[in-house]
Amino acid sequence: MKARDHSRMLAVLAEAYAAHSPSSAKAQQKAQSIMIDGGSHTLRLIRPFPPRIARAAGAWVEDVDGHRILDYWQGHYTNILGHNPPVVSAAMHTAFEQGYGLQTGFTDLLQIEVAELLSERTGAERVRFTTSGSLTTMYAVLLARAFTGRDRVMKVGGGWHGAQPWGLKGVDFHDENHSRFQHVDTRGLPEAIAEEVLISRFNDAQMLVDQFRRYGDTLACFIVEPFIGSGGFLPAEPEYLKQARELATQYGTVLIFDEVISAFRFRAGSLAPLYGVQPDLATYSKIIGGGMQVAAVGGRAEIMKLAGRDGGVKFSGGTYSGHPASFLASLTMMRYLVEHEKELYPRLADLGRRTRRAVEAAFASEGLLAVCTGDGNEAVPGSSLGMVQFPHREGTRFRSPEDIRNPEICDVVLSDKALQLALLLEEVHVVHGLGAVSAAHDEQTIEHLAEGCRRAARRIRSLL
Ligand SMILES: Cc1ncc(COP(=O)(O)O)c(C=O)c1O
Questions:
Q1: pLDDT in tens, 302-337
Q2: Distance 375 CA to ligand 1 centre (A)
Q3: How far is the CA of 154 from the centre of ligand 1 (A)?
Q4: 445 lines ligand 1 (CB under 6 A)
Q5: Which of 77, 95, 195, 290 is 20 to 30 A from residue 180's alpha carbon, by CA?
Q6: DSSP E strands: which ranges in 321-434?
């Protein structure tokens, strides 16, 4: 089915939203006169303008227009305990009062404790820290290329590993000439990147076999999320990851799991052990930072050692790596998650499941077919993630980003753009159709979300 034109709907929604949030609208004028598009992260820069946030606590944020907005973005999925959880902010207050927190440029004991905990909960033999997910995947690719002496990098179409040279191909769908996820999605890179980065299809084990047969001897690494994030919140099928492990071993390719979203999201540790598959390297960030900038690469000692003095890979970490307040937040958060693992994760999974089903039921009650991806599978017992899709047909199966981002299968503009504006009018903030449930969400938030979806669905239907 051809993509529907929703430009009139988006214009009507944008007008209603401008009337609903005049202070944020005014702030945008000032913001975009000095910052490109008025801010610093594309996903936050909702069109025509984002709500400017003044306060955030638990499941809710408050904007400069005085709206109390239920939030499912939760700091790009970092805030597993909700916004500004007292357990972390109290530790930060105390540290600052005692004169410790801003960057020193020295190294301290905190880093050792975070490294020990991370290694214990992920199986990484060695870790090294930096400040963003993008940097972790970049360093992991450098390590893999140095270790293997090969150039080629394989990733999956629709896999987002941050803005770094080998992560920027195959991010956007592009349908013309059926060249799906085959483009380099930024200007400014060397042309060689188009050749160097190979795109595979998530959960397609046969394609993996074929590509390893053809390119395996030249492949430095295969980087993949065990539970794909922005590509659709879909779990890897266990056989697929096992196949990836076997092929990578057979061809001497470094298997990298990008666990920037999944680490500490499904259990107090990495997701890999639930699949029984250990990658050679893995990348971690988001939740492990406790709301601050902590990111890490971890993995086999013989590969990680290339990041060291004599290894030749310039894994410098950056000025703000090992930041004292960030590592305090990180340690506090990870300890909390480990201590509360047994009750916290089953509760999050249950809330996640009920939230996904409530959203589907709310749209169905208004005559709109919506499917909320984010469910687990036989390896991942439950999940607190959700993404709303509007498939054109009942019974559509979602296995890879090709099924989610394809306008012939799903109404992508409706889920990504129209729904976001329609829900903001109902005091609900979603990205890609929903987001992450935190421990601060509860029965009341499910009801608020469901009511928001019903009202948004009525508005959308009236504009279709
Ligand atoms: C799976 C994954 N990897 C890497 C990144 C990049 O992380 P950052 O935005 O911290 O650079 C992201 C960001 O959303 C991500 O979801």
A1: 999 999 999 999 999 999 999 999 999 999 999 999
A2: 21
A3: 17
A4: no
A5: 77
A6: 371-373, 385-389, 428-429
